[in-house]
Amino acid sequence: MRDPYTMTKADQILIVTVMILALVMIVPVVLWPAGAKTAVVKVRSDEVLRIDLNRDGEYTVDGTLGDVKIEVKDQAVRVEQENSPHHYCSMQGFVDSPNTPIVCLPNDTVITIEGEQDGEDVQIQ
């Protein structure tokens, strides 16, 4: 009688094949990520500022609870200073991925990054 927990040759081939396919599918994501170009700042769902991430600088927008200071450095953006009870936006630090928005709920401020992939605009919000 065969032990039901023993792997057969077919099981091993299937596992190796799935692992190779997974690696092949993840390589383009790791080696060629979408190039982040622009940070979009919205206050109360209204776009108030577009920032070129290729230029370092500091910007200020008027949030619900006061000024929100934004810093761009090395193609990444962060909230440097804002008025909110716990300062979660400031603690988040620099973001350079379109997949990670900066959301400051007490100030009704959201910062998203727009990127390019294969010549088409990709916007994640």
How would you portray this structure in words?
The structure is a single chain. The strands form 2 sheets. Strands 1, 2, 6, 7 and 8 form a 5-stranded antiparallel sheet that branches. Strands 3-4-5 form a 3-stranded antiparallel sheet. A hairpin with a 2-residue loop joins strand 7 and strand 8 (120-123). The longest helix is centred in the N-terminal third of the chain and has 23 residues, at 9-31. The protein has helices at 9-31, 88-92; strands at residues 35-43, 46-52, 57-63, 66-73, 76-81, 102-104, 109-117, 120-123. The protein contains 2 helices and 8 strands.
The tally of structural domains comes to 1
Helical content, roughly?
A: 10-25%
The tally of strands reads: 8
Low-confidence stretches: 117-125
Number of helices: 2
